[in-house]
């Protein structure tokens, strides 16, 4: 069990890792719970954010990867992390049942795990439940994940929330990471601020407002 104090602790560049679970081209085409362009943009934004804050990243696919029926991972993910080989699974719908994935997660050394994946009711629910059972604090990026219908996605998220997962969105993660970094090391956080503001300009729904608030 996670102690409440640990559960309420903010995401930081030192305690968080990102898991991209089955964000694959063919699977993505079936998503109807979120606009497809928005889904792809937010997934790219999450990948860029993980790189910006140097978060450990784990990549995995289902159906055997690029050569299988589900297709390769979305190109913005592999382009952002060309040095990370995806763990290509065949047979295990729950990524945590694959020892290679479970070991890769353990090796991150992080206890707060940010999950993005397709689909919410398969590829996220199963490993998220296993991760929470193992004592991790799981964050579900609701705008970088999706499922076949809005209803299916809604109830998958409800199940995850009832089990203890924290729903969040890409822009909220960016703000939380930058805020906690500012508290830990103001000089380093201020030096990173131009990159952070450029990220918000590219991936926030309201870039003009964000730019205005960042000019103080």
Provide structural commentary.
- This protein is an alpha/beta fold and 216 residues long.
- It has one domain (4-174): 3-Layer(aba) Sandwich (Rossmann fold), CATH 3.40.50.
- Helix content is 51%, strand content 12%.
- It has helices spanning 4-7, 25-29, 36-52, 75-80, 99-108, 120-133, 150-163, 170-184, 186-203, 207-213; strands at 16-21, 57-61, 87-88, 112-117, 137-141, 166-168.
- It has a six-stranded parallel sheet with strand order 3-2-1-4-5-6, sandwiched between helices.
- The protein is globular, with a radius of gyration of 17 Å.
The CATH topology label is Rossmann fold
| Assigned CATH superfamily | Isochorismatase-like
User: In this structure, how is the largest beta sheet organized?
Assistant: 6 strands, parallel
Structurally, how many domains make up the residues? Answer: 1
Low-confidence stretches: 207-216
Can you count the helices? Answer: 10
Q: What is the number of E strands?
A: 6
Helix content: 40-55%
Q: Under the CATH scheme, which class?
A: Alpha Beta
Strand order of the largest sheet: 3-2-1-4-5-6
String of helices and strands: HEHHEHEHEHEHEHHH
Question: What is the strand content?
Answer: 5-15%
Counting helices, strands and paired strands, the structural category is alpha/beta
Write down the overall mean pLDDT.
Answer: 93
Cα-based radius of gyration, to the nearest Å = 17 Å
């Amino acid at each position: 069990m996670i102690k409440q104090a640990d559960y309420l602790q903010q995401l930081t560049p030192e305690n968080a890792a990102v898991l991209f679970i089955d964000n694959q081209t063919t699977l993505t085409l079936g998503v109807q719970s979120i606009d497809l362009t928005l889904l792809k943009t937010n997934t790219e934004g999450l990948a860029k954010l993980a790189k910006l804050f140097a978060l450990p990243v784990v990549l995995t696919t289902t159906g055997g990867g690029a050569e299988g029926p589900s297709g390769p991972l979305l190109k913005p993910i592999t382009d952002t992390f060309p040095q990370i080989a995806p763990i290509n699974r065949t047979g295990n719908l729950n990524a945590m049942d694959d020892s290679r994935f479970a070991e890769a997660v353990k090796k991150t050394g992080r206890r707060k795990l940010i999950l993005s994946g397709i689909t919410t009711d398969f590829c996220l629910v199963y490993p998220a439940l296993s991760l929470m059972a193992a004592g991790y604090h799981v964050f579900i990026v609701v705008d970088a994940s999706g499922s076949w219908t809005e209803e299916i996605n809604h109830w998958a998220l409800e199940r995850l929330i009832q089990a203890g997962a924290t729903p969040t969105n890409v822009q909220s993660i960016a703000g939380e990471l930058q805020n906690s970094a500012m508290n830990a090391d103001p000089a380093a956080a201020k030096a990173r601020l131009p990159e952070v503001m450029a990220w918000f300009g590219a991936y926030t729904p309201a870039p003009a407002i964000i730019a205005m608030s960042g000019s103080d």
